[in-house]
């Protein structure tokens, strides 16, 4: 069995998944607590993808905990293919949602100065949520690449 940092069934993989859960939850909470986020489709899309990311990362963290506790091997080609395909799909969705929300936030804050005109619009919370979403995506990309690297080593 190859040792790849962040791969499923390892301590680093569990830490990576739990970090994804924390950042996704923080980003979701920051977005939802802001007034009017559901009026804009980019923010709503990012919130939906973050919720999917949170559930998927929590599922894999539980699977990692189970594998570490019972000394199970999650490095079979079938398991890795399943993890890698969903990780890559979620990483793509996360990146598109974070980029769309970042562009909308920049548009509101700097281009049309909507944040200054409407003080109820929570632009700082939106900016914080987008920053946390990008951090979640970076962690997701790291786990996607480690799983892909391990999967390729089988062939």
UniProtKB/TrEMBL annotation:
The record's InterPro entries line, in alphabetical order, gives: CASP_dom (IPR006702), CASPL-5 (IPR045009)
The membrane topology noted for this protein in its Swiss-Prot or TrEMBL record is: Multi-pass membrane protein
Q: Name one Pfam family in it.
A: CASP_dom
* Entry GO terms, CC: plasma membrane
Origin: domain of life: Eukaryota
Q: Tell me, in one coarse class, where this protein mainly resides.
A: membrane
Q: Where is it located? A: Cell membrane
Q: Could you tell me the keywords of this UniProt record? A: Cell membrane, Membrane, Transmembrane, Transmembrane helix
Q: Which residues cross the membrane?
A: 80-110, 130-152
- Give all residue intervals belonging to the Casparian strip membrane protein domain: 7-139
Protein family per UniProt: Belongs to the Casparian strip membrane proteins (CASP) family.
Task: Provide the assembly information.
Answer: Homodimer and heterodimers.
The molecule here is called CASP-like protein
- Organism of origin is Aegilops tauschii subsp. strangulata (Goatgrass)
């Amino acid at each position: 069995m190859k040792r790849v940092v962040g791969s499923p069934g390892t301590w680093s993989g569990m830490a990576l998944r739990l970090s994804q859960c924390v950042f996704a939850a923080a980003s979701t909470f920051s977005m939802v607590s802001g007034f009017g986020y559901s009026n804009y489709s980019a923010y709503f899309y990012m919130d939906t993808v973050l919720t999917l990311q949170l559930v998927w990362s929590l599922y894999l963290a539980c699977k990692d905990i189970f594998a570490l506790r019972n000394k199970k091997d999650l490095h079979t080609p079938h398991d890795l293919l399943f993890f890698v395909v969903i990780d890559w799909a979620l990483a793509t969705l996360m990146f598109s949602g974070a980029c769309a929300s970042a562009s909308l936030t920049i548009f509101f804050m700097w281009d049309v100065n909507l944040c200054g005109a409407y003080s109820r619009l929570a632009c700082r919370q939106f900016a914080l949520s987008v920053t946390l979403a990008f951090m979640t995506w970076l962690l997701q990309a790291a786990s996607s690449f480690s799983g892909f690297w391990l999967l390729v080593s089988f062939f």
